[in-house]
């Protein structure tokens, strides 16, 4: 499972790095203002569908059923199930897309009510949203194909295809902008074009795996009905984090112009560890849990759940410490250039710190949810999700005036922590989660090492201040990150979490074997 975890995480990290380059271009060309706000709102709606279906409800419902059919009834029956599911999905998505294109002005009144105060920003957001909305058809169909590849244990191919989103986006911003009224239009067309490329790559990968998926005429067979029953409640249970972020965007449009942009760029940095670790853990854990439970190996399922939690905490907690301490320099170095001023970067850093506080909880939700889904239970997370959505909305209303652009991120972090607490309680009550003492001990020691690392980096930053020139700033930040990583590794060794010399020796041995 660790190898699959690292494979998905590696491809996702590369995608996030390319996404960071794409976001830097958006910041440099559009800054933090009405134009950027309109584009981000136009991108939010189809992107929410991407995350819900690609990393949430559909994956949670489809992959266990597909894996079970594959094991119990064979490859042909699993392929037939996938083709029927693809037919139903495409029919529904095309219908939804047509409705969205027709009623986009009304949709924007709901998700961006603050834009009504500025007619130009509202009209621009409507135009851009109509360009980006077809992306949801392609990317949701791509999610099904990726789910099939994951069910076939071809995790690398499914994850690598998502690089196309950022590659096409970068090319659109850099190469196509002169041919459109503004960069925002070029970026919007890049979103839709990337969906076509991703779907094509995944369809090719399925053909190469001798598992071609031509959609069948939509029919609600008993198995498809079961898929839908499991999937619909999972939209809330698994995707509550994305729905909360959409609520943040709605509230953000009611704040001063530029607030949506400030929160977006902060969230993009927060998404580096969240997307890499959360997506990797959720994607690889669900098929493993399903396999253990189908074979009646309950202890194996508990052990896999514990290992997954250890892996993500080992990498998440130091990321939290680093983001809290270095949020200002990170935003300045990455985005503080072009139309995005250093003052904008520091304001965005405030939102980043609020998001970072809830980062472990955001990721743990993705680790804990598969424990329900693998057992065919998509109802329980729904009830928790509804309560969390209500709490997030209330906290947003309480925080928006006194905290401005920091309020929505802080509300999301608090509700994510509440979400995790309820999921843990309910899983233990159902005897679906058994936290081993050794795992809890290791996670506690990881927390201590992360705190010590954060304090050490904060101390170093107080002594060696951030330089004024961009190149030296970048080198300063890289040095701080590398120094923090070394301190963290030493702390893990001292606390007995990892055997540092042994780990280095094993890595060297693996590299020698590959070289040979």
TrEMBL record:
Q: Is Transmembrane helix set as a keyword in this record?
A: yes
Biological process (GO) annotations held by this record are: cell wall organization; lipid translocation; peptidoglycan biosynthetic process; regulation of cell shape
Q: Where in the cell is it found?
A: Cell inner membrane; Cell membrane
Known pathway? Cell wall biogenesis; peptidoglycan biosynthesis
CDD domains per the UniProt record, alphabetical: MATE_MurJ_like (cd13123)
Q: Which residues cross the membrane?
A: 85-108, 128-149, 161-180, 186-206, 311-335, 355-374, 381-400, 406-427, 448-470, 476-504
The protein's GO terms of the molecular function aspect are:
lipid-linked peptidoglycan transporter activity
Q: Which GO terms describe its cellular component?
A: plasma membrane
Primary residence: membrane
Q: List the Pfam families hit by this protein, alphabetically.
A: MurJ (PF03023)
Keywords tagged on the record: Cell inner membrane, Cell membrane, Cell shape, Cell wall biogenesis/degradation, Membrane, Peptidoglycan synthesis, Transmembrane, Transmembrane helix, Transport
Q: What membrane topology does the UniProt entry give?
A: Multi-pass membrane protein
HAMAP family per record: MurJ_MviN (MF_02078)
For this chain, the family text in UniProt reads: Belongs to the MurJ/MviN family.
Q: Function of this protein?
A: Involved in peptidoglycan biosynthesis. Transports lipid-linked peptidoglycan precursors from the inner to the outer leaflet of the cytoplasmic membrane.
Q: Per its record, how is this protein called by name? A: Probable lipid II flippase MurJ
| Organism expressing this protein natively | Acetobacter ghanensis
